[in-house]
Amino acid sequence: MLLAALLILSLAFAGQASAVSWYFLRYYPASGQKFTSFSGEMTIPALPRAATYYLWPGLQPTDNSGVYQNVLDGRSGTWWIGSGWCCSNPSLPWGSGFNTYASERITFDNSLDSSGSTWTSTLTRESTGETVTNSFALGSKSFNQALFAIELYDVAWDFGQLAFSNVVITSTGSTDSSWCNSTPENYNSATTYSITGLSASVSGSMVTCKIGSVILEKPA
User: Fold this and answer.
1) pTM of the predicted protein model
2) How far apart are CA 90 and CA 85, in angstroms?
3) Burial class of residue 17 (count of CB atoms within 10 Å of its CB; 0-12, 13-18, 19+)
């Protein structure tokens, strides 16, 4: 069902005939929980050519109505990264962003505010300190899927590995932290990956999951 939702909601390609390839890992929280933040670092891979490469961490809600993403976009021939909600229900403007280049590290931080009404995304280009922050009225969404994704249109996975590090995901709703130490879903067993440095802690009803590295290495 996620694949169908993402095919419908993919950036800028709804209604067009394209060959799409999906590679993603997906975490679910424990029953009755929802995710309230998702942060980490992404190491930028080489960009072989101008093509529709979308590489992203993101959150998807229980109703599969869209995807809240920090998208690394290769269409122009230079990587650009920005945050947003794809693509409707609600319809929201895409956030701002910046260009980035191979081997740079980008910090992403997505969090629900204390009022529970707004999600805020901050992206930081560590090499220069450049930062963009955008807010999205997504408080009505209950996010129960955290994804590390590669989304490709009419192009192969030819850029090497996609590496995330210092990942922190929080959930609320119960003290069950078992999801953090569980193996994520590997969609269609399509990805060779590695995960290191898992740890979970609980404070009140908040579970904090820390992951040292998540590396999507190559197609399986």
Assistant:
1) 0.92
2) 8
3) exposed
